[in-house]
Structure formats: structure tokens, C-alpha cells
């Protein structure tokens, strides 16, 4: 885009999710902007969005862009978020993200997907709303589920074996997504 210098700060906006970060002692904080699976070096990032901003700043500098300001966190105004971006990075497909979640049993990805499921225009992604969406789907296949989190780390995720069977049957009969769904199943 021809950018040679950034005069101000690099601001990370993680406001797509609520500020409830902890998902348990075995997961990185759940930020609306995470980088490197929420790690900073070999440890969990305290502020994953700031790690992402530092990563961007370092990448810009490697490409010869001078960055004068520090990194920070901000809830950017809607006008800024809706303006034409200088660059974009395409996300993997949802099917690929789910495969990367389920096959190795990546609990961090599961929690992040649960919150993203709840993030709609004007509403932040929360675990509570994500759980509601999952429970709503279970009801749509006549299965009962009481969800406490997205990764199954809680002893408060209650579901019967018949629920698992109902979901598997429903998704297997969905010809439009069957192959992608089957590819996500743990081995």
C-alpha cells in the first residue's frame, strides 16, 4: 500500500469478545484478538491482543516501515472499522478451523469458536451466549444439552450419549457439509 511510516500507535481492538478472559488454568486467555494460539514466547500471553499488535509492529519494521509509536489497546470507532483496509488476511474456512479444533482436541480453539459463535453485529461474543447457541442447536435435533463451556473442560457440561448420536446423525445426513464434518471428527 506504499506505507513507509506509522506516526502514531498501533492499536489492537479485541472488542468482538467480552473481557472475560479465563477459561481455566490450562488455556490461554480468550481475547477477541489472539496471535500464536494465545502464547507469548513459551507462556500464555497476559494480553493476547497486545502480543498481536507487537507482532504487527515487528512485521512492519521487517518490511522497512518506520513505526514511531508504541502498541496499545482501544475499542476503535465504527467508522474506523468500516473504512477500507490497507491490507487483509483471509481466515481459514470454518470447516478448516473446526478440523483444527476437533482432530487434535484443541481446547483453546474450541473456546474461541464458542465465543465467536455468539458474536453478532452489535453484540460481543460471550461464553454464555455461545452456550445458548449450542444448546439451541441440540434442541433442534431433539437432543438435550446443558453446556458450561466450549471445550468440555468443565464437569458441568451435561449431555447424554443419545445427544451425541443425534448430533452425529443430523450432521451426517447433511449432504452439503457431510464431508467437511466427517473430516473434523477426532481420530
Write a structural description.
It is a single chain. The strands form 4 sheets. The protein has a two-stranded parallel sheet. Strands 2-6 form a two-stranded parallel sheet. The chain starts with a strand and ends with a helix. Helices cover 40% and strands 10% of the residues. It is elongated and about 60 Å long. The chain is built from 7 helices and 8 strands; from the N terminus they run ββββαββααααββαα.
Helical residues, percent: 40-55%
Give a count of the beta strands, DSSP E runs of length 2 or more. Answer: 8
Structural class: mainly alpha
Task: Give the overall average pLDDT.
Answer: 88
**Given the structure, what is the number of helices?**
7
> What is the H-and-E element order?
EEEEHEEHHHHEEHH
Summary?
This protein has 187 residues and is mainly alpha-helical. The chain has helices spanning 48-62, 78-82, 94-102, 107-118, 127-140, 161-173, 178-184, and strands spanning 5-6, 10-12, 39-40, 43-44, 66-67, 71-73, 145-146, 158-159.
Amino acid at each position: 500500500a506504499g506505507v513507509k511510516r506509522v506516526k502514531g500507535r498501533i492499536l489492537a481492538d479485541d472488542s468482538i469478545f467480552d473481557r472475560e478472559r479465563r477459561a481455566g488454568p490450562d488455556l490461554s486467555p480468550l481475547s477477541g484478538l489472539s496471535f500464536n494460539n494465545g502464547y507469548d514466547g513459551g507462556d500464555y500471553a497476559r494480553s493476547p491482543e497486545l502480543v498481536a499488535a507487537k507482532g504487527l509492529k515487528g512485521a512492519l519494521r521487517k518490511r522497512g516501515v518506520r513505526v514511531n509509536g508504541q502498541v496499545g489497546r482501544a475499542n476503535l470507532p465504527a467508522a474506523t472499522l468500516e473504512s477500507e483496509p490497507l491490507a487483509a488476511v483471509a481466515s481459514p474456512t470454518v470447516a478448516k478451523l473446526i478440523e483444527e479444533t476437533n482432530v487434535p482436541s484443541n481446547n483453546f480453539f474450541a473456546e474461541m469458536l464458542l465465543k465467536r459463535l455468539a458474536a453478532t453485529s452489535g453484540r460481543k461474543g460471550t461464553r454464555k451466549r455461545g452456550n445458548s447457541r449450542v444448546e439451541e442447536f441440540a434442541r433442534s435435533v431433539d437432543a438435550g444439552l446443558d453446556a458450561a463451556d466450549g471445550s468440555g473442560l468443565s464437569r458441568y457440561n451435561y449431555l447424554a450419549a443419545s445427544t451425541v448420536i443425534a448430533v452425529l446423525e443430523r450432521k451426517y445426513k447433511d449432504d452439503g457439509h457431510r464431508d467437511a464434518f466427517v473430516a473434523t471428527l477426532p481420530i
